[in-house]
Specification:
Elements (H helix, E strand, L loop, with lengths): L1 E2 L3 E5 L2 H11 L3 E8 L5 E7 L8 E5 L8 H12 L5 E6 L2 H10 L4 E8 L2 E7 L5 E7 L3
Parallel strand pairs: 2-5, 6-9
Antiparallel strand pairs: 1-6, 3-4, 4-5, 7-8, 8-9
């Protein structure tokens, strides 16, 4: 089972991000709302089945129109340089989750490895966001 804390990721293409997180990672859509009063800004969230209280917000670059022009420019510049967000997906079995996601087509840049805090591996989403799949050690 995958669990996440609410997070916000910058994505280059919300449709591509939506397909990746629903089809490959196996999350479901929580909200897909267009806000005309904010210049048709799209609020798109996904999360794990059965956990309605957690979600990832997929924010289109350069960001919502509530951000000023300077902030939007900084977001564009940072994401172009590869400075991206990180989301930690927690799992009860890192190796099984790794295999399941690999079977769905997720390409990992790190295989499961033992760490001081537990076992984890990593992949990047289509926009380059760093995703850590983590199995915490029993304390």
């Amino acid at each position: 089972m995958i669990r996440i804390a609410t997070a916000q990721l910058w994505v280059h293409d919300q449709e591509e991000a939506l397909a990746f997180y629903t089809k490959k990672v196996g999350l479901e859509v929580r909200a897909d709302v267009t806000l005309p009063e904010m210049g048709n800004f799209r609020w798109l969230t996904v999360g794990p089945a059965g956990q309605e209280d957690v979600a990832i917000v997929l924010m289109a670059i350069p960001g919502p129109p509530v951000l000023d022009a300077e902030t939007q420019s900084q977001v564009r510049e940072l994401t172009a340089k590869g400075a991206t967000g990180t989301v930690f997906l927690s799992t009860d079995d890192c190796d099984a989750a790794y295999q399941e996601l690999s079977d769905r087509g997720v390409e990992f840049n790190e295989e499961p490895t033992d760490r001081p805090y537990g076992r984890d591996c990593g992949f990047r989403d289509p926009s380059g966001n760093n995703i850590r799949l983590t199995q915490l050690a029993e304390l």
